[in-house]
Design a protein that fits this description.
By secondary structure, the chain is of the alpha+beta class. Helices cover 23% and strands 34% of the residues. Helix 2 (73-86) crosses helix 6 (219-231) and helix 3 (125-135) packs antiparallel against helix 5 (175-185).
Length: 280
């Protein structure tokens, strides 16, 4: 049976915004090679494949055009909004390579994922030098109050906080060099951010491992950023903030992040998604 492939854009209500993802609502019968072929043909940064289980949970696998990835936030939001529209809203449990991910979808088709237990670790000074060189950035471009670190909430991301919006806007990096470094270190995207204020963050995410220059909205990186800010004691009192991403590449996206009092309970990332035309 030929699988039905849906195309949704996550973290937006406008098909011209957000981050496109392929979605297969029932991938039973597809092996990994078939999923990889579909993801390559779809050509988006990720395609999510849902596999319904007898216990009511869902297995999920994520593929970029180049390889399988352990977790993808925007494809999760896209897939579960699509699932809710074809079935019903509710609370769901997904089983990904990264672990167990809870997702709730409300009646307005706003989906909230709760990440796996996050981790924050030091970024090796030599790796930082290599990373900045590939980005054509310098250490004095960085916010001294928020030093670079590695953060994980289903996938690993270096978190690099720029000192200015202008620095974030000027992104021209060495794709091949950064791709090689990220492949060697197992990083999924580089989470480049600038904080407008305690409640508002602007982000850009180079994504060479997925075969694309930049991801317009990155749910996994948003969760990782929540874990990073919690570890730095840099969250607002509400423990909530909003990420604006994709503006610099013409696909504006909006991601809402909530960090529980104990981040080990998982970081919550919310957004909606909209179905796209096949040609979009």
């Amino acid at each position: 049976m030929t699988p039905v492939i849906l195309r949704y854009s996550a973290f937006t209500t406008d098909p011209q915004g957000g981050n496109p993802a392929g979605v297969v609502l029932d991938a039973r019968g597809l092996d990994g090679d078939a999923m990889q072929r579909i993801a390559t043909e779809v050509g988006y940064s990720e395609t999510a494949f849902l596999l319904p289980r007898a216990d009511g949970d869902l297995d999920v696998r994520y593929f970029s055009p180049l390889a399988e990835v352990s977790f993808c936030g925007h494809a999760t939001i896209a897939a579960m909004v699509a699932h809710a529209r074809h079935h019903a809203p509710g609370d769901f449990v997904l089983h990904a390579l990264a672990g167990r991910v809870r997702v709730s979808v409300d009646a307005a088709c706003v989906a909230t994922l709760t990440s796996v237990t996050p981790r924050v670790e030091a970024l090796d000074a030599g790796d930082l030098d290599l990373l900045l060189k590939a980005l054509n950035w310098h250490r004095d471009d960085l916010d001294p109050a928020l030093p670079p670190q590695l953060s994980y909430a289903g996938a690993w991301h270096p978190v690099i906080v720029a000192a200015s919006r202008a620095r974030l806007a000027d992104l021209h990096y060495d794709f091949e060099t950064l791709a090689a470094l990220m492949a060697a270190r197992g990083w999924t995207t580089v989470n480049l951010v600038w904080r407008e204020d305690a409640h508002t963050v602007h982000a850009r995410n180079p994504f060479p491992p997925g075969g694309v220059v930049e991801d317009p909205a990155t749910g996994a990186a948003a969760a990782a950023l929540g874990a990073y800010l919690a570890a730095r004691g840099a969250l607002p009192a509400t423990r909530r903030f909003t990420i604006h991403q994709g503006e610099d590449i013409g696909r504006p996206s909006l991601l809402h992040v909530q960090v529980p009092d104990d981040p080990r309970d998982g970081i919550r990332v919310s957004g909606t998604a909209v179905q796209m035309d096949v040609a979009a």
